[in-house]
Design brief:
three-stranded antiparallel β-sheet, 2 domains, mainly alpha, 492 residues, 7% strand, Amino acid/polyamine transporter I, 7 strands
């Protein structure tokens, strides 16, 4: 990214001016005498561990997508549903492990660090592929932020609706607009977006990870209670039958379900940013692989339970959001807790996915406009209990504008399942499969036509086919929704 001027604080709270070049090894720092304070690249000592990395990944992965898995399983049935979910778990873990090896260029202990996903692509592939990667990565991150804004509004409306049913009875319509809730979410995110970077948002990711377990556990409990009340396990081997919907709609829904499942595991495009928060030794790759294993095991367990038990409880009528498939008024307080947990979780998850965009924009502007006071002038903000940090006017304006844009787009296109499917399709193959495979083969110098080379090529081709199928189904879903949709007039 060229040379960027920043400011960090020493342990004595002295302000030190730093000049960082993200692609060269000639980092210049005014004081590098104490290795306890600074890493080998002149940056403040990284303190992340396998547990903080796991928290970041779980926060990113166990998002609103988990709530659509019962619906996705219903479209595919008892055989294909769990198999597709396990397939994506394996692919995601394997590809993330390949990507983790590429964090340092050359030696895994002393090689040059790559701070972002694009830096890894630049170091190993270069050329036009860097620009393509950047467009796909940041478009996908932008789309995920939109999806999380929509998901949050659905949970907020569910809280309002459950209390309305409890107060007025289930015959009451209790409909409400999603717009006020999206605006409310946007205002909170504007404040949270002023957190300087991902490494300083670890506490938010930890809270969000706890919340994800909370609402997933409640969803599981409600599903088990419904199964016990039904006295039987619902669903079928092949999913929603052609009689319930048209044959073409069944095909589109199946494709969209695959996209939803692929979305539920997408986090490779922020893996390097997470890995860059880790301390060493051991090597960052070793720690990140452990975090990948822990987080993939945890998320897959929850996914299988939520998807399968949710489908068993509701059957082929499973809703797009697992928690809205149960009576809003019984038990209304438990559903309120679950939906509050979803809201808190998505507040943190939004930051995990938006921070890479903020970092990229701010580094680019710092490089090209470093003489402007609008860019360089810093304002010291004190937060009770959290200390103080420096805020630039550009950060305030850009991040506020970004959150505002995602909120407006969410109000225009509030299609929860369709958005998840499209985001899964856009990001799965290029960011989770293609680039990690290409970079790993260059990084490890995999011999052409060797067994591993052939395996990786075939796996990449298979995942490309899956991505195309998921994308077609999700786009078809959006087209169907648009036929009856009026922007800014969505209510449930």
């Amino acid at each position: 990214m060229g040379e960027n001027n920043g400011i960090i604080k020493s342990s004595q709270n002295q302000v030190l001016h730093v000049s960082l070049d993200h692609h060269d090894d000639d980092h210049v720092l005014s004081d590098q005498s104490n290795p306890k304070l600074y890493d080998d690249d002149g940056r403040p000592k990284r303190t992340g561990s396998v547990w903080t990395a796991s928290a970041h990944v779980i926060t990113a992965v166990i998002g609103s997508g988990v709530l659509s898995l019962a619906w996705a399983t219903a479209q595919l049935g008892w055989i294909a549903g769990p198999c597709v979910l396990l397939m994506f778990a394996f692919v995601s873990y394997y590809m993330s492990s390949l990507l983790a090896d590429c964090y340092r260029f050359g030696d895994p202990i002393s090689g040059k660090r790559n701070y972002t996903y694009m830096d890894v692509v630049r170091s190993n592939l270069g050329g036009t592929k860097v620009k393509i990667c950047g467009v796909v990565q940041y478009l996908n991150l932008f789309g995920i932020c939109i999806g999380y804004t929509i998901g949050t509004s659905i949970s907020m409306m569910a809280i309002n609706r459950s209390n309305c049913f409890h107060k007025n009875g289930e015959k009451k319509a209790c409909r409400s607009s999603s717009n006020p809730y999206m605006i409310m979410f946007g205002i909170i995110e504007i404040v949270l977006s002023q957190i300087p970077d991902l490494s300083q948002a670890w506490w938010l990711s930890t809270i969000a990870a706890v919340m994800s377990f909370t609402y997933s556990t409640i969803g599981l409990g409600l599903a088990i209670a419904r199964i016990a009340a039904n006295g039987t396990i619902k669903g079928s081997l092949t999913g929603v039958s052609a009689g319930a919907v048209s044959q073409s709609e069944r095909i589109w829904r199946s494709f969209q379900a695959i996209g939803d499942m692929s979305f539920s595991y997408c986090y490779s495009f922020i893996l390097i940013e997470i890995q860059d928060t880790l301390k060493s030794p051991p090597s960052e790759a070793t720690t990140m692989k452990r975090a990948n294993l822990i987080s993939t095991t945890v998320t897959t367990t929850f996914y299988m339970l939520c998807g399968c038990l949710g489908y068993a409880a509701v059957g082929n009528l499973a809703p797009g959001n697992l928690l809205t498939g149960f009576a809003f008024h019984n038990p209304f307080w438990l559903l309120d807790i679950a939906n509050i947990a979803i809201v808190v979780h998505l507040l943190g998850a939004y930051q995990v996915f938006s921070q890479p965009i903020f970092a990229f924009a701010e580094k680019w502007v710092s490089k090209n406009c470093n003489t402007s006071k609008f860019i360089t002038k810093q304002i010291k903000i004190s937060v009770p209990g959290l200390g103080s940090f420096n805020l630039t006017l550009f950060r305030l304006v850009f991040r506020t504008s970004f959150v505002t844009l995602t909120t407006v787009v969410s109000m225009m296109l509030p299609f929860f399942n369709d958005i998840l499917g499209i985001m899964g399709a856009i990001g799965f193959w290029p960011l989770t499969v293609y680039f990690p495979v290409e970079m790993y083969m260059v990084h490890k110098k995999i011999e052409k036509w060797s067994t591993k080379w052939i395996f990786l090529r075939l796996l990449s081709l298979f995942c490309l086919i899956v991505t195309v199928v998921a994308g077609v189904g999700s786009v078809a879903g959006v087209i169907l929704e648009l036929k009856v949709f009026r922007p800014f007039h969505t209510s449930y």
